[in-house]
Structure formats: structure tokens, C-alpha cells
Amino acid sequence: MARDRKFRALFLLFYLVVALGATTVPLLAQEAPQPPAIAPAPGAPAAAAPAPAPPSPPKIDKGDNAWMLTSSALVLMMTIPGLFLFYGGLVRGKNALGTIMHSFIIVALISIQWVLWGYSLAFGPDKGGIIGSLAWLGLNGVGLDPNPDYAATIPHQTFMIYQAMFAIITPALITGAFAERVKFSTFLVFILLWATFIYDPLAHWVWGVKGWMREMGTLDFAGGTVVHISSGVSALAAALMFGKRVGYGQEAMPPHNLPFSVVGASMLWVGWFGFNAGSALAADGLATSAFVVTNTATAAAALSWMAMDWLFRGKPTVLGAASGAVAGLVAITPASGFVGPMASIIIGIGGGILCSTACNLKTKLGYDDSLDVVGVHGVGGTWGALATGLFASKAINAAGNNGLFFGNPGQLWVQLVAVVATWILAFVGTMIILAILKALMGLRVSEEEEVMGLDLSQHNEKGYSL
User: Fold this and answer.
1) Residues of the chain with pLDDT under 70
2) 114-140 residue pLDDT tens
3) Nearest CA to 203 among 188, 214, 192, 191?
């Protein structure tokens, strides 16, 4: 009964915070007052309307290009070494090297896939709002001049390589769901198929010119649907298809190196500024706003997850604080270019509470998501996408839209449709891919190989020699 009262009190507090945000955030995000118009002096002749100037060709801005190349490197750092340290420290020592290898080799695999056909499918000339054509196959026509449809002040190849880093980290996130039991050969084929048939079409839906979600008005600044919901929901499908690890529920499976994981989470926090602020595609005020709210939401989520552990586990855990930071980064991602600092605090608190609760429910629901990809990315991305529909404000980004708390309830409906469609595509698509691979190749290593550990059974190496 005491625990139930704590849950009720905590969620009452959460909903009070959201309700408070509904009344306070509009006051904090009002547009700056505009200077009054100056009327012409009495009797002065009216000025002739100037002739329209011919449109100037797109011109590369060196500052924007430098920022976007830096952001690309920051996002790459999120995968290697950020994610592989975070995940690598959470598994048992006998699987550390194999887990690190997953993230490392995805960088190589998707870098080639993206150049050959992935970028064209995701951002190439539209085919019915569903997919890009293969007109840009092998980067044909993707040169060093800007493409105004996507970014008018940086080379088209800069935009392409920046988006490549998103395409790399998204399937890498899924690997936490089947860590410690996947066959490496099956893993490679799965990643290639998933990137081609799930990630690339979804990126086109949301970000591609004439993609149907983009045309509908979906707000996803840096990947709440494209990256986090897709990876989190696909992780749920993978956990169900792979089944539980040998000994799961009967023996302890604690992280073998928490300092690794905290260092990895810290690198994710730093690299995420390239992820979110870089999505402004320019070194401008919107990038600054996204940078500020990203840091603020992350801090709020780290504190709220830590508080959850303190309240329900009796101690403020280091892993809880690190996981909370990642949850906050996930939750603010779709909203980062559309909300102000006060809204980001509410989004961060919600991310910490909801993701912590989802991870704690995992064992009761009976699936083995090894590294809590579903609870952090699936739940956090869903909350962030819906929160964008609550707190988005055109005062922050005139190219976006207002959310429910700014007088536009329709935006919340648009976000909900996008969330549901992403869930369906990711879950059903992943189940189909894995069912085919299970029949053709098998998904898991043998029980003997799993007990031995993936480092030896899959790579004939040891992460540690003691």
C-alpha cells in the first residue's frame, strides 16, 4: 500500500507539472515585441514600390558549413565511442567486445549503404510521399553546391554526411535489445535490411521533400520518430523474436563496468548537441535555442530518474542518473527546435519519470530487452513526439507550428498520427525481417556459445585478459 501511495503521489506531481506548464509556458515564450511602423511625414510623396530582385543563386556560408561538419563529427562520436561504451559497460564481461563491435561495424556498414542507395531512398526525388527514388544512387547529382530544398547555405554533400550519422546511430541503438545472444552473421544482414526497409522510408516520410508526414505537418526537429521511436519499437519486436537470455530471471546479470557506461553516457550528452543543435542546419539563433533546451531537458531528466531510484530503490544510483540523462536527450530531440527552456524542463522531468517506470515494468511484462532500449528510446521518443504537440511554439521557430498549449490542438493530433504510423512501420517491419532471417539463418547463437560469451564464440577474442 505504501508503494502504491508513492506511485500515486509521484504521478500526481507529474501531471501537476504538465498542467502548470500549460499555463506558464505561453507566458515565457511570447514573441518579442516588434518596433512600431514609422509613418511617412504628412504631404510626403509615397515611395515607389521597388522592383523585385531576381533570386540569387544559393551561396555557401563558411560558418554554417563549419558548424555542420563539426556537428557531423559530434553525432559520429555518439556512436563511436559514446554508444559502444555505454552499451559495452552494461553487458557482462564476456560480451563486452562483441557489444562494442556491434556499434563499431555499423558505422562502416551504414556508411557504405548510405552512399550507395540509402541517401537516395531517404532524401531523393519523391515517389508518392513514401520513398525517394534512386536518382541519387551512388551520390549521383549530390555534389558540392547547396541543395536549397534541404539546406541553402551548405554543400549538398555536407547535408548528406550529416544525415548519414543519424542513419548510423539509429540501428546501433536497437542492438541493446538483443545484446549477449545474437549471431554476428545474422546481425549484419538484419542491420542492412532494417536500414533499407525501415529507416530510409521513415526518414523520407518525415524529412524528405514531399514525404507524407512532412506534408501533414509533423514536427520532428531531430529524430523523435525517425530515430528513437523507430529504434525503440524495433527493439521491442527484436526482444520478442530473440527470446530471453540463458539464465534470465534465475541468475544476476549486472553491468560489468559501470564507469564505462557513465563515460559513454557523458559522450552521448556532449555529442547530442550536434544531433539537436546541428539540426538547425545553420550556425544561427535556432541552433542556440536547441542547444539550450537540450542541455536543460537532459539535466531535468537525470535528476528525475535519480529521484525515482531514491524513492523506490532507497538509493540514488549512478546508473539511474546516467540513464536519466539519456532519457532526457531522447525526449527533447523532436521538440528541441520548437520549444523554450521552461517547456524543456517539463519534457525532461516527464522523460525521466516515464522511462524509469517503463524500464522497471520490463520484468513484469515478460520480455528481455537487455539494455532497456524500449523503455528509454521507445517510451522516451513517444513522449517527446507528443510533448512537441503540446509545447511547440512559433515564437521559438516560425517555420514550425503552435502546439496545444499555444492554441493549436490540431498539432497534437498530427503528432499522434505520426507516432502511431511510426510504431506500426517499425514493429511490423522488424517482425517480418526477423521472421525471414530466423527461417533462413537463425537469430541466436547456440546455448553453449551464449554461455561461453560472444567475445569468444563470435570473434575468438577476449575483451579482458586477467
Assistant:
1) 1-57
2) 999 999 999 999 999 999 999 999 999
3) 214
Contacts of 125 (CB under 8 A, 6+ apart): 132, 133, 135, 136
Residues 6+ apart with CB under 8 A from 84: 99, 100, 102, 103, 104, 264
Q: What is the pLDDT of residue 45?
A: 39
Collect all residues with Cβ–Cβ distance below 8 Å to 147 and sequence separation of at least 6.
156, 159
pTM: 0.90
Helix (H) or strand (E) holding 132: strand 131-132
Residues 153, 287 contacting (CB under 8 angstroms): no
CA-wise closest residue to 372 among 241, 192, 223, 179: 179
What domains can you pick out in the chain, each with its CATH number? 62-459 (1.10.3430.10)
Q: Please count the other Cβ atoms lying within 10 Å of the Cβ belonging to residue 152.
A: 16
Q: Where are the beta strands (DSSP E) in 228-281?
A: none
For the chain, what percentages of helix, strand and coil (3-state, to nearest 5) are there? 65, 0, 30
CA 406 to chain centre: 25
Residue with cell 531514491: 310
DSSP codes joined into one string, 168-224: HHHHHHHTTTSTTTB-HHHHHHHHHHHIIIIIHHHHHHHHSTT-HHHHHT---SS-I
Q: Closest by alpha carbon to 29, among 368, 307, 335? A: 335
Alpha-carbon Rg of the chain, whole angstroms?
23
Q: What is the pLDDT of residue 58?
A: 75
- Residue found under cell 555499423: 106
In the structure grid, which three cell numbers stand for residue 381, read together?
521518443
Question: What is the enclosing helix (H) or strand (E) of 127?
Answer: strand 126-127
Is residue 416 within 8 Å of 386, Cβ to Cβ?
yes
Residue type, 163: Q
Q: Which residues are CB-neighbours of 68 under 8 A, at least 6 positions away?
A: 151, 154, 158, 159, 162, 278, 281, 282
| Crossing angle between the packed helical segments 379-391 and 230-242, to the nearest 10 degrees | 160
Backbone angles phi, psi at 128, to 5 degrees: 70, 20
Q: At what angle do helices 285-313 and 341-360 cross, to 10 degrees?
A: 40
Q: Which residues of 350-364 are buried (b: 16+ CB within 10 A; e: fewer)?
A: bbbbbbbbbbeeeee
| Separation between Cα atoms, residue 331 and residue 403, nearest integer Å | 16
Number of alpha carbons in the 13 Å side-chain half-sphere of residue 418? 39
